[in-house]
Write a structure and sequence with these properties.
36 strands, 5-stranded antiparallel beta sheet
């Protein structure tokens, strides 16, 4: 068996060397000192067949540096440099220098040139470069050994003959024209599983929306063969799983295969056919997942994907939320009411209502789950200040708080019901204005003496009301304490025990970080949810990234963040009382590092 594997390896490496050698012999050499520019031709280096080009590709008012299929009418980009800073102005040069380095120079008016090294960590200087017909751009040393190649650093695409090695990933673009890395990634995990995740997740099993189910084969990698097969193979080239089969056995030089992770989160395999008398055409051969709405994270927080009549996906806000950007439905939705008025479970029925939806579910981790009746589930969410909705399915009630991340429609044969809490309409300000106007009109028509009498009577009435409220408040507070003890003894905790502490923790973090609890327009996906970002900065001791100035006491800042995270713990028993919060703020009680809240790990 070992000799068979050795023979197979020998044949494979012989085929690879023959392929590279034949391409090298046909490809024009890019010599040291050669450069291309955005200002005058040539703006790119082509492969022998001119199907691929490497250089400056026009986009918008500038250029990007990358590799593309130079076909008509539109080029297909297969690789780009530095995707977070890929835009190049109309005054730049790409040069293979005399020192054997591939350098991008951005020329600035009245300023020094900005240089960026494209090929890094070379094992010695390059002697020449080539753009191969495979779509691979390669640097060679003086012994014609490849010391750097674009195939080893895929972006969102692999081509025929290219691998996605263990530990590597494909990162989707933000949109069709925005090539920055965002939204989704395909990861070839070290455990052997090929998995699709949203980009702003922790890559947990909960976050996955497709996988090859090949965990348990560490070290295997994804290979797109030159015949169009997507294979998961091990180091001895043994196929562990055929992800997709093209059915072709011959290696046609007129067909190029391309597997790309789209900005919509779908992984697709294409064939580009250049051969025959027929015109050039592109064919979609295979894709996962099969339904667009199966892509987790395709719709943002607090929204779900819905296929409309023409087969196009649309994002719909959950009840009680509104679009963050009404002109762009995909970034998600935010709550359209404030929970600051949530003070007592007895007041909830007058402040909120329950909206019922069927065939809706979510994959988020619930902070509360219990086997109770449907009516108890509905009432439990209504009386819970932080409850966004309660999923009732098969006799089980699962409560979820904002933001809800992975909402989706269920199949027709699945029976599920969700109780969403929605704020009732408040008294319109126009009514208040009209009432004030009526009072003012009466006063203007009343004599001075009558006005004095009204003021005296009003003052007496107000004084009596304050006394009555004080007495009532005492008895109400006492009854709440008794009720709370009864709930604790009966195990029905409800949500009467934040509420103020939880709200205080959210407000405290918002003050420290100078932003809302959920922000869509942030520089990095992990910054969307404040509780998640705050916890990561705290445990990694990187709170100085907030850049609050030199006068800020770092120890006090860290203490404030820890107190805020303690207050928003999901388990009520873990949250400190307001008395303990005050003692921690005054330094009477020490503050320890809090555990990770569910919101920070979801």
């Amino acid at each position: 068996m070992a000799s068979a594997y050795s023979a197979l390896l020998l044949v494979f490496f012989f085929w690879i060397s023959e392929t590279v050698s034949s391409q090298q012999s046909q490809t024009p050499l890019i010599k040291l000192g050669t450069s291309i520019s955005t200002n005058f031709p040539p703006t790119s280096w082509h492969s022998p067949s001119r199907r691929f080009a490497f250089g400056f590709y026009p986009q918008g008012s500038g250029f990007i540096v990358g590799i593309w299929l130079a076909n008509k009418p539109d080029a297909t980009i297969t690789w780009t440099i530095n995707r977070e800073n890929h835009n190049v102005s109309s005054n730049a040069t790409l040069e293979l220098t005399k020192k054997g380095e591939l350098v991008l120079r951005r020329h600035r008016n009245n300023a020094a040139d900005e240089e960026e090294l494209i090929a890094k960590d070379l094992k010695g200087p390059a002697s020449y470069a080539q753009m191969l017909d495979s779509g691979n751009f390669v640097l060679y040393n003086e012994r014609s050994e490849a010391i750097w190649e674009s195939f080893n650093f895929p972006t969102d695409t692999i081509l025929g003959g290219q691998n996605l090695n263990a530990g590597s990933e494909l990162l989707s673009s933000a949109s069709a024209i925005d090539l920055t890395t965002r939204r989704f990634h395909l990861r070839m995990q070290e455990d052997g599983n090929l998995v699709l995740y949203p980009a702003d997740s922790l890559d947990l099993p909960l976050d996955s929306y497709w996988n090859s189910r090949t965990n348990g084969y560490p070290g295997i990698y994804l290979n797109l063969t030159c015949t169009g097969d997507l294979l998961l193979v091990n180091k001895t080239l043994h196929t562990i799983q055929t992800v997709s089969s093209s059915g072709s056995e011959s290696n046609s030089t007129s067909i190029i295969y391309r597997a790309t992770l789209g900005y919509d989160g779908v992984f697709r395999l294409y064939s580009h056919n250049f051969g025959g008398a027929a015109e050039y055409n592109i064919s979609l051969m295979w894709y996962v997942p099969e339904e667009q709405c199966d892509v987790k994270g395709f719709c943002g927080f607090n929204s779900y994907c819905n296929m409309i009549i023409d087969g196009q996906p649309d994002c719909v806000c959950l009840p009680g939320t509104a679009y963050v950007d009404p002109n762009r439905r995909f970034p998600g939705c935010e709550r359209n009411y404030n929970d600051g008025s949530c003070k007592d479970t007895n007041e909830m029925a007058s402040l909120y209502n329950i909206t019922v939806m069927e065939q809706i579910t979510w994959d988020d981790n619930a902070y509360f789950k219990s086997s109770i009746s449907e009516e108890s589930c509905r009432k439990s969410c209504l009386e819970d200040c932080i409850c966004a909705g309660a999923l009732y399915e098969s006799g089980s009630c699962s409560k979820q708080k904002y933001p809800v991340k992975y909402v989706r429609r269920t199949r027709q044969d699945q029976s599920s019901k969700v109780f969403f809490k929605v704020a009732l309409e408040s008294i319109k300000s126009s009514n208040n204005s009209s009432a004030i106007g009526m009072v003012a009109s009466v006063i203007r028509r009343t004599s001075k003496k009558a006005v004095v009498q009204i003021l005296v009577m009003s003052l007496a009435f107000i004084t009596w009301c304050l006394v009555a409220l004080s007495i009532s408040g005492f008895f109400i507070l006492k009854s709440r304490v008794v009720k709370g003890r009864m709930q604790m003894e009966s195990g029905n905790f409800g949500m009467a025990l934040k509420v103020d502490v939880y709200s205080y923790g959210v407000v405290l973090l918002e003050i420290v970080f100078c932003r809302r609890n959920m922000e869509i327009n942030v520089s990095k996906p992990e910054e969307i949810l404040l509780s998640k970002w705050a916890y990561e900065l705290l445990v990694e001791r990187e709170l100085e990234r907030l850049d609050l100035g030199e006068d800020v006491d770092r120890q006090k800042l860290e203490k404030m963040v820890m107190i805020g995270i303690w207050c928003i713990q999901d388990e009520p028993d873990l949250r400190p009382s307001m008395k303990n919060v005050v003692m921690m703020l005054e330094g009477i009680t020490d503050v320890s590092v809090p555990p990770r809240p569910t919101a920070a790990s979801a």
